[in-house]
Design a protein that fits this description.
The structure holds two protein chains of two kinds. By secondary structure, chain A is α/β, with parallel strands linked by helices. Chain A has 16 helices and nine strands. Chain B has a five-stranded parallel β-sheet. In chain B, strands 3-4 form a two-stranded antiparallel ribbon. In chain B, strand 6 and strand 7 form a beta hairpin. Chain B starts with 6 loop residues before the first helix and ends with a helix. Classes of the chains: A alpha/beta, B alpha/beta. At the A-B interface, helix 2, helix 3, strand 1, helix 9 and helix 13 of A face helix 2, helix 5, helix 6, helix 9 and strand 9 of B.
C-alpha cells in the first residue's frame, strides 16, 4: 500500500480490538490463526458495523467452527463489546501474555474468564476504576469443586509396549468391506482405468490387466467406560488402554461415565499420555463416585448416539454392571443402544471365577441387550484386556 | 444475477424465495456470497438447511447441482469418470488408422470427450451453479479429503488431464446432520452456521408461507405446542418440516383447534420414535395442549 492510499476501514479502534478479540477466543480454546483474524476483518468490511447483531453473526460465521464453540463465542462477544474498557484491558492482558494455555476445561464462562485473566492472578482493583472483569471471575468460584484423579504416566518403554499390545487387538467383525476399491494384484475386478493408463506405455496395446479389490477397513469404535468407585482399581489400566486405542486406531470415540457421561475423545487423542490424562482428569467430574449406568446410556443415546454411531460402529461397553440406581431405565437404554449399533460388546471385569453368573440388578438388565458378553477374569495388564477382546466371540447363552 | 449488497437485501432475497431467515443466517449467507466462501450448515434434521441452497439457486437464477453424500461415495460417482468403453474403441480406431505416435494417442485418449461429468465437475464447468453437497456427514473421510481442493480453489485435478478450474466459482452449500463429526480441515475452509430451531414468530411466518391453508388459530396453537414440545426431553425433537406436516395433517382433518384426542391421533406426523410417542400420549398431551392454547393467545 502506498502512503497516499486511504486507510483500511478499521485502522481505528476496531482493528486492534478485533485482533485482541481473536486472541481472547484463542485463549478460551478456539483454534484460530492469523488467517482467521484476516477473514473476520474482511467479513466486517462487508457488514453494517453499526449493527451489533450483524457484527456478532459475521464474526461467529468466520471464527466459530463447531456448534459447541458458539457458547464460548457468544459469552466472549457479549463481554468484549459491552465495555470498551474491558476490551482494552483484555487486549492488554492478551498482549502481555505469550504462554499458550493448554488446559481446556469445558464450562464456557470459566474458560472465557480464565482467558481474560491470563495466567496471572487478577490485577488489584484500582479505587476509581474497578476492573470490569471481576464479575466474570466470580463465576469461577461458583463452580462445583471437581474431584480430580492423578494417573501415573507411562514411561516411553511402557508406551511402546502398550502400542505393541494394542496392535494385536482384533475385535470381532473388525474387517469391514467398504465401497471403495484399491489396485491389488489379487483383486477380483479389473481396474480399467489403470489398465488403460498402463497400455499407453505400449502404444495402446493391452498386455496385462490391472486388478482392484475392495478396501477393508475396521468399523468405528465407540468405547463407553465405567469409572465409578467399584471400577477404580482398573481405572489406571483402562485409561492406558483407552489412550493406546485412541492413538493406534482410526475413528475411535471414547466416553467415560460414573454418575455423568463425559466425552473425552479429543483429550485422549493427544499423543502424550501425560497431557492426555491431565486433560481427561479436568474433563471428568465424577471419578470413583457412584454409577448410574441407565442414565449414562440414555444420555449417550440422546446426545451422542446419532453423532458417533454412524457407519456401522462397534460399541465396547466396559462396566461391572453395579448400578447405584438399581438398574432403573438400564434395560430400555441398553436395548436402544443395541439397536443403533452394529455390535454391542460388554466387557465385564467383575468376574473373577469361571462359574460367575451376573446377579446384580444392573447386570441382569444389561445381559439380554448385548450382542456379546466378555468377562475378564483377571484384569491386571493391558495384555489380558486385549486378549479377551480379540478371542473369538463366546457362544451365546440362550436368553 | 448479481449478489445482494447488504444483509437486509440477502434476507429479502431469501424471503422472496419463500425462506424466512433470521439476521444471523442472513449474515452468514451474505458473507458466503460476498467473500466467495463455501457455507457449512450444520443442524438438526428438518431445520431447512437444504432448502437454503434451493432458494439461492432459484433466486440468483443459477443451476442447482446437488450431490447427495453416502458412505463410500467415490470420485467416479461424485466428480468424474473416464468412459473406458469409448477409450478402448478409440484405441481400435487409432490402430486401423495406423497411428503410431504414442504421445498423440495418449492425448487423444485422455480428451474431455471421454470424461463423464459428475456433480462436482459439472458445478465447476458450464453455466454458474449453486453446488449443494448434502449430508456430508454420511460420506466417509477419504471423500472429505478430496473435497478440500474443490472448496479451497474451486478446481479439480485430474491426473491424466490436468487441473480444471471454475470460470465462475460456484456458490457452495454444505449441509450436515452431525451423524459424524466433519473434519476440521473442511470447517476451516467454510463459513460455519448452526441452523437452530426457529423461535415462535419465525416458525409462524414459515408456516404461513409453506402451508397457507392452515387457519390462524390452529396455526398459532400448533406453533405453541411444538415450541413447548422442543423444550422437553425427547429422543428426536420435531423440526420445522414436521411442524408443517402436522399442521397440514390437522387441516386435512378439518380441525380448527387443538384437542388432546386429535393430537394423540396425529402424533405420528410430529414424533418419529415410538418411545417419544408413548411418553407424550395421554396425560402429557392434555397438559401440553392446555398450555399451548394459553400461549397461542399471545401469538395471535
Amino acid at each position: 500500500m502506498t502512503p497516499g492510499d486511504a486507510p483500511p476501514p478499521f485502522a481505528g479502534a476496531l482493528g486492534p480490538n478485533l485482533l485482541a478479540f481473536v486472541r481472547l477466543l484463542r485463549r478460551a480454546g478456539l483454534p484460530l490463526g492469523p488467517a482467521d483474524a484476516m477473514e473476520a476483518s474482511r467479513a466486517l468490511t462487508l457488514l453494517d458495523i453499526a449493527s451489533r447483531r450483524q457484527v456478532q453473526a459475521g464474526l461467529r460465521a468466520t471464527l466459530v467452527r463447531r456448534h459447541d464453540q458458539e457458547e464460548v463465542f457468544d459469552q466472549a462477544f457479549a463481554l468484549f463489546w459491552r465495555d470498551p474498557e474491558a476490551a482494552k484491558h483484555a487486549a492488554a492482558m492478551a498482549l502481555m501474555d505469550g504462554v499458550k494455555d493448554t488446559s481446556r476445561p469445558p464450562p464456557a464462562s470459566r474458560r472465557v474468564a480464565e482467558a481474560l485473566q491470563g495466567d496471572r492472578p487478577p490485577p488489584p482493583p484500582k479505587v476509581e476504576e474497578p476492573p470490569p472483569l471481576l464479575e466474570v471471575a466470580m463465576t469461577v468460584s461458583e463452580r462445583e469443586r471437581l474431584m480430580q484423579m492423578d494417573f501415573e504416566a507411562m514411561g516411553a518403554l511402557e508406551i511402546a509396549a502398550a502400542k505393541q499390545e494394542i496392535r494385536k487387538l482384533h475385535l470381532p467383525l473388525d474387517e469391514r468391506p467398504t465401497r471403495r476399491f484399491m489396485t491389488h494384484p489379487a483383486g477380483a475386478r479389473i481396474d480399467l482405468r489403470a489398465t488403460l493408463r498402463e497400455s499407453m506405455r505400449t502404444g495402446g496395446e493391452i498386455l496385462g490387466l490391472s486388478h482392484k479389490r475392495r478396501v477393508q477397513r475396521p468399523p468405528p469404535l465407540v468405547v463407553l467406560c465405567d469409572i465409578s468407585g467399584s471400577m477404580a482399581r482398573y481405572a489406571q489400566i483402562l485409561l492406558h488402554f483407552l489412550h493406546a486405542v485412541a492413538n493406534e486406531r482410526d475413528r475411535v470415540s471414547t466416553f467415560l461415565f460414573g454418575t455423568r457421561l463425559s466425552n473425552v475423545t479429543r483429550a485422549l487423542k493427544n499423543h502424550d499420555a501425560e497431557v492426555a490424562f491431565e486433560m481427561v482428569s479436568h474433563l471428568v467430574p465424577d471419578w470413583s463416585g457412584g454409577t448410574r449406568i441407565g442414565d449414562a446410556l440414555e444420555t449417550f443415546n440422546r446426545d451422542w448416539g446419532r453423532r458417533v454411531l454412524g457407519q456401522g460402529a462397534v460399541v465396547l461397553l466396559i462396566t461391572d454392571g453395579l448400578d447405584r440406581q438399581g438398574a432403573a431405565g438400564l434395560g430400555e437404554a441398553a436395548a436402544r443402544l443395541q439397536r443403533s449399533c452394529r455390535r454391542l460388546i460388554w466387557l465385564n471385569p467383575l468376574l473373577r471365577w469361571e462359574g460367575f453368573q451376573p446377579k446384580s440388578q444392573g447386570a441382569r438388565a444389561l445381559m439380554p441387550h448385548v450382542h456379546e458378553h466378555r468377562p475378564v477374569h483377571n484384569l491386571n495388564a493391558l495384555r489380558d484386556l486385549v486378549a479377551s477382546l480379540s478371542s473369538p466371540p463366546p457362544r451365546r447363552s440362550p436368553r | 444475477m448479481s449478489f445482494p449488497r447488504t444483509v437486509e437485501a440477502t434476507r429479502q432475497l431469501l424471503a422472496a424465495g419463500g425462506y424466512v431467515a433470521d439476521t444471523a443466517l442472513a449474515t452468514s449467507v451474505h458473507l458466503a456470497l460476498a467473500m466467495g466462501r463455501p457455507l457449512f450448515l450444520e443442524g438438526e434434521p428438518g431445520t431447512g438447511k437444504t432448502e437454503i441452497a434451493k432458494v439461492l439457486a432459484q433466486q440468483l437464477d443459477r443451476r442447482l447441482v446437488r450431490l447427495q453424500c453416502y458412505d463410500g461415495l467415490d470420485l467416479a460417482a461424485a466428480a468424474y469418470e473416464w468412459d473406458h468403453a469409448r477409450q478402448l474403441m478409440e484405441i481400435r480406431l487409432a490402430e486401423t488408422a495406423g497411428v503410431t505416435d504414442r504421445e498423440r494417442l495418449s492425448d487423444d485418449l485422455y480428451d474431455r470427450r471421454f470424461l463423464t461429468e459428475r456433480p462436482l465437475l459439472s458445478a465447476l464447468t458450464g453455466t454458474p451453479a449453486v453446488l449443494l453437497i448434502d449430508e456430508l456427514d454420511r460420506a466417509d473421510e477419504p471423500f472429505e479429503a478430496f473435497l478440500l481442493e474443490i472448496l479451497a480453489d474451486f478446481q479439480i485435478t485430474i491426473p491424466e488431464l490436468g487441473t480444471i478450474k471454475a470460470e465462475t466459482p460456484p456458490i457452495v452449500v454444505i449441509t450436515s446432520n452431525r451423524t459424524r463429526e466433519v473434519h476440521d480441515a473442511i470447517r476451516r475452509r467454510c463459513l460455519y452456521h448452526w441452523v437452530d430451531y426457529p423461535d415462535a414468530a419465525r416458525e409462524r411466518a414459515i408456516l404461513r408461507l409453506r402451508a397457507p391453508g392452515v387457519p390462524e388459530l390452529l396455526s398459532a396453537q400448533v406453533i405453541a405446542f411444538v415450541q413447548k414440545l422442543r423444550a422437553g426431553d425427547y429422543f428426536k425433537l420435531p423440526g420445522v418440516a414436521e411442524t408443517i406436516d402436522w399442521a397440514q395433517a390437522l387441516t386435512a382433518l378439518d380441525a380448527h383447534e387443538l384437542e388432546p384426542e386429535l393430537v394423540d391421533d396425529t402424533l405420528g406426523a410430529l414424533l418419529k420414535y415410538q418411545d417419544d410417542i408413548a411418553r407424550l400420549r395421554g396425560a402429557e398431551t392434555a397438559k401440553l395442549v392446555a398450555e399451548a392454547k394459553i400461549a397461542a393467545t399471545r401469538l395471535l
